[in-house]
Design a protein that fits this description.
Elements lengths: L3 H12 L3 E4 L9 H4 L5 H19 L5 E5 L1 H4 L2 H17 L3 E8 L3 H12 L6 E4 L5 H14 L2 E7 L6 H4 L2 E2 L2 E2 H12 L12 E5 L4 H10 L5 E3 L9 H4 L10 E5 L1 H4 L12 H20 L2
Parallel strand pairs: 1-2, 1-10, 2-3, 3-4, 4-5, 5-8, 8-9, 9-10
Antiparallel strand pairs: 6-7
Helix pairs in contact: 3-5, 3-13, 6-7
């Protein structure tokens, strides 16, 4: 039976592009014509939703998925949450996979409530999850994945520089991120799909390619969400370390480099929509070259 990761892999193959466009949408990314009347929280949320939906229309045949960073919506209170859900629903209607970057977790009933909120029948395809509470906190999310045909990406080796302060600590002769990888593999062992990958995946940054390669070589059934491409310095050659020998097993996020490409010198003079399309195509080509596809 196909799981959510099988479906994501099929979408990636259909467009030939293992890219997820991160909708970390800030008001300052919008052109002046869309910003000038955005005075209230409700106005801002409407403008951001319009911006996102226009990008989704342009990108849905080029990238297979979007990742919505909840922080940029929560800052506008309930208006922003409505924009987040509206954006997700629109992306799904255009055939895209939708990830909510919420990094939630807790223990017991609270974790169950988070799982119901984000992985219920009206929720997202995937969410990001913090492993720190251990299995007590992870089990409600895994159960929701199995029950509702959803997926999670558990933080393993993140892309920010200070992540090493904790994630590279020695734990019984191996770094903590490797121990977390072992747990992720175990937690997802009952949700492996036809393509050989589990619905329980891992967040593995492109900015640490050697560590990503070690994780990839060891955990064959764990699908990777790879942040750090673009504004954080990662390139196709770095992200390639997270992929398997067939050029699969991972999807690479790019946020500002796509949705705010019109603010980058390379795409100067283009509309935000045309610049996003050009940037997504450039990233597709960069990854294809690095993966030798």
């Amino acid at each position: 039976m196909l799981n959510i990761t099988d479906k994501l892999i099929d979408k990636i193959k259909a467009v030939g592009n293992p890219t997820v466009a991160g909708l970390d949408t800030r008001l300052e990314f919008l052109p002046e014509s869309m910003r000038k009347n955005a005075k209230s929280g409700e106005d801002v949320a409407k403008a951001i939703t319009e911006y996102n939906c226009n990008l989704i229309d342009a990108l849905c045949g080029i990238v297979p998925a979007v990742k919505i960073q909840s922080a940029y919506y929560e800052m506008y209170a309930h208006f922003g949450i409505y924009a987040m859900y509206t954006t997700a629903a629109y992306a799904m209607s255009r055939g895209m996979a939708v990830m909510a970057d919420v990094k939630r977790n807790d223990i017991g009933a609270t974790a169950e409530a988070y799982a119901a909120a984000y992985l219920g029948t009206t929720g997202y395809d995937y969410i990001t999850v913090n492993p720190y509470p251990g299995y007590d906190g992870i089990k409600p999310f895994v159960d929701a994945c199995e029950r509702n045909g959803k997926g999670i990406f558990v933080l393993a080796r993140m892309s920010n520089p200070s992540a090493a302060e904790l994630q590279n600590l020695d734990v019984g002769g191996e770094p903590l991120y490797m121990r977390v990888g072992s747990l992720i593999e175990k937690w997802g062992s009952g949700l492996i799909g036809e393509h050989g990958y589990s619905a329980v995946g891992a967040v593995v940054g492109a900015t640490n390619p050697q560590e990503a390669r070690e994780l990839r070589n060891r955990f064959k059934s764990v699908f990777f969400l790879v942040p750090g491409y673009g504004a954080q310095g990662g390139k196709g050659a770095d992200a390639a370390a997270a992929f398997d020998e067939n050029g699969g097993g991972a999807i690479v996020n790019n946020s500002r480099g796509i949705i705010a490409a019109h603010m980058i010198d390379r795409y100067n003079g283009m509309s935000y929509v045309d610049a996003a399309v050009a940037a997504a195509c450039d990233m597709r080509d960069d990854l294809a070259k690095a993966l030798k596809l």
